[in-house]
Write a structure and sequence with these properties.
With 498 residues, the chain is of the alpha/beta class. Helix content is 31%, strand content 18%. The protein is built from 15 helices and 16 strands. The strands form three sheets. The protein has a ten-stranded mixed β-sheet, with helices on both faces. α8 runs antiparallel to α12. The two termini are 29 Å apart.
Length: 498
């Protein structure tokens, strides 16, 4: 359907002889150790504002060996999640190899795939389209998926939620009786009820009801997208979850998460369990900016959502792995840990927090379910959604082991583009952090928000003049938050990526 709509648009324009809305030529130079290749892409942007659209990218790969020069035609899609029933028709087509999205053998350098999920608004779709046309046009991006109010589990949540409703939600979520009613009152949820937004804070937002509804939408949209991947076994190497005011330099991101680890494996023979940043087949969740705080004698880490959260193919497959707790199927150590937690079969060290902690999701679990199915039911059926969306990613990474433990001594990725190796986070490098059982949320390029703010976390376009902590985004920054549409285009052009 997407391709047919696209074809009709092109034929119509051809017949009328009108000039295409916008054609941009750009060159992406990617240097590999075995051969030098130049990616030249022509980007065609469609202006169909009310429906899903396809962007066609033609990539000519120039090698030192003229016999292997070839042309690849890729189609990447701008998709509204509520209109998307399957991702099979949206997967990019190519004249040669498909991306390694289904996990068929080791991924090649030039065939990594990334999908982007932006949680935005139907009233501000232009912001997401600007992301798609700038940093989302990177050659590794396969699908650019946008979730809006139409994807809210509660129909018309934004329009039907009054300020009195917002006040009631805040009051309920800050009352320990809510978590006790879910058999989930523990140090984690006790921390959450203190941290959940007060009504005074929520009233300062432009749209308090919209913010409350969006927290649930983040998770329901994530589970929906991952369910689509699982249905047809078309997982990307990474899924990026972002806000509609997030800006990224995907050249830097892909070098760190995809190309760097692959070089380390090919050139030095280092395996994933010895890497600080493993290849995407390992279950790993990265935060574009990681927030740290104390929690019950341990460290609690979450992503700062506006800087993006990055789920590897391995993490997504762990989320869709069936968990059998009835003994009908031999279970892995990971499955057994989930079963012990959900069935309260605690033994030895599992008697105490953090191993026993849940957020009440076990009430929605049946043997054979995956975690993705559990949280799909949780977000659709729970009466009050008493967590910020960022907390969810911290919970599944650290408390459900969807992400592997940070390897504080792991080998660093080999970075290209003439950049030096990126160092480790000081927190990860600290020997004592190995004692924290839940240090499983990784950070992108040592970006931390704690006592000291470093890495990507410093770039925020709402920074005030003479701000000593934050600064406005600059063209060479890897990730920035609170970036307006006009600034996004300027950053993209000034970065030299256009």
């Amino acid at each position: 359907m997407v391709e047919e709509s696209s074809s009709r648009t092109k034929v119509s324009r051809k017949k009328t002889g009108s000039v295409l809305a916008a054609i941009f030529f750009f060159a992406i130079v990617s240097i590999f150790n075995d051969t030098s290749r130049m990616h030249q892409a022509t980007r065609l942007f469609f202006s169909d504002e009310d429906s899903n659209a396809v962007q066609t990218v033609t990539i000519t790969e120039m090698s030192t060996d003229p016999d292997i020069n070839r042309k690849t035609v890729m189609k990447k899609s701008f998709l509204l999640l509520n209109e998307t029933k399957s991702l099979l028709t949206a997967v990019p087509s190519s004249t040669n190899d498909m991306p390694s999205s289904a996990g068929r053998g080791p991924p090649r350098h030039d065939h990594f795939s990334i999908d982007v999920l932006v949680v935005g608004s139907q009233f501000k779709l232009s912001a997401a389209r600007k992301q798609f046309q700038t940093w989302g046009s990177h050659s590794f991006v396969r699908n650019f998926i946008v979730s809006t109010e139409y994807d809210d589990p509660i129909p018309d949540c934004n329009s039907n939620t009054t300020i009195d409703d917002v006040a009631r939600i805040s009051q309920t979520c800050k009352d320990g009786r809510f978590w006790r009613s879910k058999n989930a009152f523990n140090p984690l949820t006790k921390h959450w009820l203190r941290a959940f937004g007060r009504i005074q804070w929520l009233k300062k937002k432009k749209n308090p009801a919209g913010w409350v509804c969006a927290q649930r939408r983040f998770i329901s949209s994530l589970t929906r997208v991952i369910d689509l991947y699982h249905a047809d076994d078309i997982y990307p190497d990474y899924l990026i979850v972002a806000d509609d005011d997030t800006y990224m330099n995907l050249e830097n991101v892909t070098d760190y998460l995809l190309l760097g680890p692959q070089r380390l494996k090919e050139e030095r023979g280092i395996e994933d369990d010895e890497m600080y940043v493993p290849t995407p087949i390992s279950p790993t969740i990265f935060a574009g900016c990681r927030v740290r705080s104390g929690l019950g004698g341990m460290i609690w880490t979450i992503p700062y959502g506006g800087f993006g959260t990055f789920l590897s193919q391995g993490a997504m497959k762990r989320l869709t792995q069936s968990i059998h707790c009835d003994g009908s199927v031999p279970s892995t150590e990971y499955e057994q840990a989930i079963c012990d937690k959900y069935l309260h079969n605690y033994t030895s060290r599992l008697n105490s927090y953090p191993f026993s902690a849940t957020i009440g999701e076990e009430a929605y679990f049946q043997s054979g379910d995956s975690l993705n199915q559990v949280f799909m039911k949780y977000t659709n059926e729970i009466d009050y959604f008493c967590l910020h969306s960022d907390w969810f990613f911290g919970y599944i990474a650290n408390f459900l082991n969807v992400s592997r433990h940070v390897n504080h001594k792991g080998e660093l990725p080999i970075m290209g583009h003439g950049r030096a190796e990126v160092g480790r986070s000081m927190f990860d490098e600290d020997e004592n952090t190995t004692h924290y059982e839940v240090n499983r949320l990784h950070t992108l390029m040592s970006s931390e928000f704690s006592r000291y703010i470093q890495g990507n976390c410093i770039y925020s376009n709402d920074a005030k003049e003479n701000d000593r902590t934050f600064r406005r985004c600059v063209p060479n920054a890897t990730i920035c938050h609170y970036v307006a549409e006009e600034d996004m285009e300027k950053l993209y052009i000034d970065s030299g990526l256009s």
